Every structure is written in structure tokens, then in C-alpha cells.
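Consider a typical record:
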Amino acid sequence: MLLALAAPLWAQTSPQTTLDWHHLGGYSIEQGLAAPAGGRVDAVWFAGTQLLARTASGQIFQTADFETWQAVKAAEPKFTVTYATRLPEPGATARSLPADSGHIYALGNNLYRSEDGGVSWQNLTAFEGRSVVGGGLTGVAVSALDPQHLAVSNRYGVWHSTDGGLSWAGLNDTLPNLPVNALLAPAEGATLPRIEAPDGWAQLSPARDRWLLQNDAAASDQADRSRYGALLKAEITAAGARGENVYAGSSDGRIWFSRDGGATFSESARLLAAGRVERFFVDPDAPRIALAAAGGRVLQTANGGLFWNDITGNLPEARVHGVSADREGSAVYVATDQGLFWARADLNAATPPAAWTALSAGLPTPRAVDVRLENNNNQLFAALEGYGVYAVPAPHRAHVWRVVNAADLSQRAAAPGSLLSIQGGKVQSARAGDLTFPVLAAALSGSQIQVPFEATGTALALNMESDSRRVTLGFPLKTLSPAIFIGSDGAPVLVDADTGLTLDAANTAHSGARIQVLMTGLGKVRPEWPTGVPAPPANPPAVAAGVQAFLDGTAITVTRATLAPGYVGCYLVEVEIPAIVNAGPAELYITTEGERSNKVTIHLER
């Protein structure tokens, strides 16, 4: 059985004409506390049956069901410090609460309660020597309707107890308070970015419903900032590097550049920054070209940092926190206090001030803390204050003609019979030499075509006709170029062969199961099959080349490899999960005659 996937495939492989933002990862981070954590919350209080909280951004949210939150405008009660005979830990503060006048509470790394004015204290949040809700408590509240119902706020969000502090539950999964300092490059083999959080960096959980803290700073530039700061005797707030080209910016708006990997620096001769340097973008292929988000301005250099050009143009007056770009696509994206913007700009030389277009329509808040292009500059990711990470097909791609692999939007080589996505326009016809490429779907923003099974050589020049122009694009060709289809949420298209259900972290694969992997790029089939014709539902042609599958680097059984029934240009590889497996996420990839597919994650249960 094969799940009907035609609509998701087209939606995934064609850029959209409107911005349909997709939320990634929710609002919380898993970091070993009683429940997933959020960002800093500075105050918490009860108002009847409602619990209210003020986040570090100054927003106030309330919940009545202790599951969902909504933003409100409310008056915050005054909290006063009370006297205690002694404090349970250095630096703690004591409070008395009208709803529980028989006790006083102390806030420190833990929450404490005293029945005798502070002579003795009971620790309500410690377990095995550590706080189950994290440290840095900022507030405590007791319900006037139930003195056993407590709530606390701290640097990790909001927590509550309904049994007087014997047990605690988090209230952060739906509170828009995710602490994101920056967007970081995806992990090796992944397609979605990581985030820099206050205690390290985090990546998406297998279920993609929250973030998992990794407890180190290896993925960020924090170590580089510290090292450059010591060398330059300045507070370095941003750094960027590609090869030997290094850029460093300070809290007072200065920028330095290095041509020897950061061993020595020179200060830029002309600098237009108006404040703290927040972020750099350095072109990966031409590192002499860089952008800086500094104060309320966007700066550009085309000579390795010697001079910087102000391209702020018509951006609203607001701090600029993040910047990313696609030099070949002549596009720049920025994250500001007033939202996300993009502009066309030729970055190969000093460019004039840009004309910016707003992109924040449909997003929950205007304030953006970072922006990043990934997946060969095909996807745009934005980090919004409190609300986390959002993704959308990069809008500049709707106007730039480009050939990419339909499965993973990469620029891997095509193979006879495989699917290609043409980004940038509506294709009416496509040819390469004497070969006609069937147009399977077409829209103003992009189209999908199939490479003829008869195609040969190492490269082809594709001539395409659209409504308004004729376009020629070259692309590499291999006999085999396997790729596993990836959905718009970054998850691979994997199907349980017995149930026809798509597999993910909620619907895991079990040991001994047969799993169907939807792919393209597996080349010719036997018997031969005509280009542009859906594969038959019964006895589809088999892949001519040998196909192998690997789970966490170990070969597993391939039970069949054919064209996908009912599809054009898609292949179905069925694999068998071993009888004994380790539960949890595992890495899966397919090879054929030495050519390896992209690596994807499959979730297993015993």
C-alpha cells in the first residue's frame, strides 16, 4: 500500500506566490527539568481563577485552563519584600502573600516556605540536590481559591503545583516565550536550523514539537567573540568568518576585518554604524562580500571589510538584529524590531541604498531577532521574539530561475527519469537537444518536470518557454542520483507498508516492519517505461541498478525497488526494519552503485 502523496509533493517542490509561514518547534525547550522550559518570566500572580505572567519582553499573558495562554492588558499587583528571621540561601528574597498569610516564601535558586517567620524553611523545588524547575526564581503566587495551588516564575518560565509544592508541572509549551538569541546552521545532514539559547544551542526534537538543549556553545560564535575581544580589547558582540576572512563587530559600533583567519585584525576605514553590531552575513563562496546588522543600519562590503556601504534605504527606524543574503539571487533579508524585510541588491560591488519590502504579514509579532536562508537559499527562516521559529519558501526565488532536485530542493545532479523543480516561473515547454521534458505541473512561481529516461551525458542545457520569456539553464546529469523526498516541515516521506500511514515521531516504525521510502533519481527501470506516464498500480517496473539501504550505518534488507505506482518520476524503495533495533531516532539512507542519497531520520520502537 502507498499513501496518496501527490498534493504534498507538488506543494513541497514549488515555491508559493504568497507567504504562508510555518511554525517550527513550538515555544519550549527540553533541558532536563520537571517539564519543558521557556524563557525568562519576571512575575506571576493569580486573579481569581486566572493565572497571569509577565515575560521578559514586558508582555502579559493569562491562562484559565493552565494549558493555553492569551495576551492581555492587565494591572500587575505590587510585590513587597517581607522580613524573615533568616534566609535559606544567600541572595534569596522573602515574601508574604495575602492568599497564604500563615506562611512566608523565599525566592532563590529554589522556592522555600516557612511557617515560623523564617526560623526554619522547607525547600519546595529541590530534588537530588538540584531545582526541578531551574534556578533564578523571580516570582511566587498562591491561589486565593486553593492555598495548595502555587505558581512560580523564573528564568525558565512558569511552573505550578496543585499539591502545595510536592510536585511541579510546567506551563511553557503554549506560552509564547521561547528564548532565541540567534539562528544557527543546521546540523550535518539536516535541513532545519538550530537555535542559540541562553544555556547553549538547541535543535528540533524528533516530533518537531519542541527544542532539545545540547548544553554547549560549540554551534555558536561565542568562543570566537571572546577570543577576538581579548585580542582587540573590545566587547565583541558579533563575529563572522569564511575561510581566512573574518569580521568582528563591537558593542560601540566598530568593525574589524582579518585576512589571516583572525590572527591579526585591521579596523575598517569608513564605518557608518549607529550602534551595537548584532550580526554578520559572510558570503560562503565570496567571503570578501559581507553584510552587517549594526544599530539601526544594514552595512555592506565588497572588498573584505576595508570600506562599508550603507544600504539601509527605506527601512523603518528600528534596531536591526539579523541579516542574511543570496548573492546569486541578489536578495538581502533583515530582522528588525519592526519586523522582517527583504530587498533586491547587487552585492558584488558597492550597492546603493535598498528599497525594502515588509514580510511580516501573517506573523504573530513584528519583532524579529534573526533571519536565515538555508537549503540552497530556497527556504527562509525567521526567529521572532518569544514566538520561536517560522519558515517559508524564500520569496526572492519566485523571480529567479533555477533548477533544483524535486526531492530535497538541493542542486544534486539529476538522473534519467528523475523529477526536477524549476523555480522562478511557469514553464510551458522544456527541451534539451532532441529530448522533450514533460511538464508535470506549472505555476507562476515554479514548475515541475521529468528528465527523460533516454537522457545521457554528464550535463544538459535545458531550454524552457514561459509566458514572457525563453530561459536556458544547465544542470549536471548522472546515471544515478538518489534522493529521498523531504516534506515542507523537514520530515522525510516514509510510509508504513502495512497501514499506508506516514511515519513520524508520533507514528513510529516498529521492529520487523516494512517501510516504503519515496525517492527520485534511481535511473532506468526494467522493463523500460515511457517518460511522463504514471507507473502502473500493479507490477510497476523495477529499478535496474542495485539498491542498498542503511540504518545507522548498518545494511538492512531491501525487499523491492520500483517506480512508485501512480506517480511520474517517483520511485518506491521498500526496506525491512531489523527484528532487533534500538528505540528512538535512527539515520536512514539509500545507495545505488556507489551513489548515496540524503540522510533522513526515522523513528523506531522495539
